[in-house]
Write a structure and sequence with these properties.
Length: 168
C-alpha cells in the first residue's frame, strides 16, 4: 500500500443529539470505520445552557439526570445502528456547550474524523443542528464530514411553506 497521501482513520467521532436521523450518520461512520478498521466514538453532550431559564426550585441534579438518561438512550441508538458494521463503539456523555465539547472531545481523544448530521435546509432544524455542525466545522482541527439528514417525508411540506412565505 503506497498510498501515503490517503488519510487513515483510527478513531471516528459521532456526536449524537438523539434524533431519529442518527442512523444515516452512523451508516456513513460505520462504513468508514469498517473500511479503515477504526473505532467509533459516540458522544452525547448534555447542553448545560438549556437550563439557564429554569425556575430556581428546579435542581440541576434532577435536570442533569433526565438529560443523562436521554443521552444513554441516544448512545444506545448509535450502538444499535452500528451493529451491522464490524466496529468497536465507545460511548461517552459530556456536559457543556455542544459545539465546544464536540471539538474538545475530538481533539483530546485524538479522533481522526468527526461525522455529524446536518439539515441542509432552511428553517428551525437548520438553526438547531446546523449551527452546532457549523461551529464544529469552523472550530475543529480534526476534519468534519457532514451528512445531510434532511428528513425526506417533511421536505415537500417545508418547501411549500418556504414558497408560500416567499410569495406573501
Amino acid at each position: 500500500m503506497g498510498h501515503d497521501n490517503v488519510p487513515m482513520y483510527d478513531r471516528i467521532l459521532v456526536p449524537t443529539d438523539g434524533t431519529s436521523e442518527t442512523k444515516r450518520v452512523v451508516d456513513h461512520a460505520g462504513e468508514l470505520a469498517e473500511t479503515h478498521d477504526a473505532e467509533m466514538h459516540a458522544v452525547y453532550v448534555v447542553n448545560t445552557s438549556t437550563f439557564a431559564g429554569l425556575p430556581m426550585e428546579t435542581s440541576w441534579e434532577d435536570v442533569s439526570e433526565v438529560l443523562r438518561e436521554e443521552g444513554e438512550g441516544a448512545l444506545d441508538a448509535v450502538v444499535a445502528a452500528a451493529d451491522p458494521y464490524d466496529v468497536a463503539v465507545e460511548t461517552s456523555i459530556v456536559e457543556g456547550p455542544p459545539s465546544k465539547e464536540i471539538v474538545r472531545y475530538a481533539e483530546h481523544e485524538a479522533c481522526d474524523l468527526v461525522v455529524m448530521g446536518t439539515h441542509g435546509r432552511d428553517g428551525l432544524d437548520r438553526l438547531l443542528m446546523g449551527s452546532v455542525a457549523e461551529r464544529v466545522v469552523r472550530g475543529c482541527s480534526v476534519p468534519v464530514l457532514t451528512v445531510n439528514v434532511g428528513d425526506e417525508e417533511s421536505q415537500p411540506a417545508a418547501d411549500a411553506a418556504g414558497e408560500a412565505r416567499g410569495r406573501s
